Amino acid sequence: MRSALTALLKSEGSFDVFSAGWRTAGRDAESLRPDVCVVDLDCPGAGGLLDGGRDDEGGGHLHRGGGTGGLLADRAGRDRGEGGDGGRGPARSLLHSRTALLVLASAGRPGALRRAFEARALGYVDKDGSPNRLVRAIRKVAEGERFVDESLAFGFLEAARMPLTARELSVLARAAEGESIAEIARGLHLSNGTVRNYMSSATRKVGARNRIDAIRISQGAGWM
């Protein structure tokens, strides 16, 4: 997918395009400081971008390897030494302050949309949409304008209804990594009973049958 997007954008003639897998995306973004960073929310490494802290000096890195990676797109002719951030607000993790975030998303994963919104993404493009929509979105986002595909509207409505608290999500995320109740309790500085209560609450809220089902539902929705 990444190679196809790279070829598409290069064919436009008005973009300088740099493609990167997740193992090198952080280093490449730091050195290139592109105008726009395009991220596929379905990639495993996307979480490193959306959940990381901002580094206004252009640092940061992605935490996981694998996936189809990110795509860095830069408008031809722009001076990267230009000051200001275009009023775009904070970027996240690997992004420099002047780099805007655009995500490729699916309406069926509202949790991923919410995380992208919290990461101050400016552009939201439906992965099932036409290639021309992506090109138009990049142009708008590069100018500091917001772009949201209409087909993602329902996903945003669902994202606003996320039932789990941050603590419930953190407990589920650790359980998904294979940690026991005792290990989760130690890691979060909670009692075993409190962890069990959070687990039960999360399972009930997402309509799951058990812990494994709650993890499956939450991961499928993109909450974690």
Folded structure, characterized:
The protein has 224 residues and is of the alpha/beta class. Helix content is 43%, strand content 13%. The chain is built from ten helices and six strands; from the N terminus they run H-E-H-E-H-E-E-H-E-H-E-H-H-H-H-H. It has a six-stranded mixed β-sheet with strand order 1-3-2-4-5-6, with helices on both faces. Helix 5 links the parallel strand 5 and strand 6.
| Percent of residues in beta strands | 5-15%
User: What is the terminal separation in angstroms?
Assistant: 23 Å
Largest sheet: 6 strands, mixed
Q: Report the uncertain regions.
A: 53-70, 75-93
Provide key terms for this protein.
elongated, alpha/beta, 6 strands, 13% strand, 10 helices, 224 residues, six-stranded mixed β-sheet
In short:
The protein is an alpha/beta fold and 224 residues long.
Topology, element by element:
Elements: H1 2-12, E1 15-20, H2 25-32, E2 36-40, H3 46-51, E3 70-75, E4 100-105, H4 110-118, E5 123-126, H5 131-142, E6 147-148, H6 153-159, H7 166-176, H8 181-188, H9 192-205, H10 211-221
Parallel strand pairs: 2-4, 4-5, 5-6
Antiparallel strand pairs: 1-3, 2-3
Helix pairs in contact: 4-6, 7-9, 7-10, 8-9, 9-10
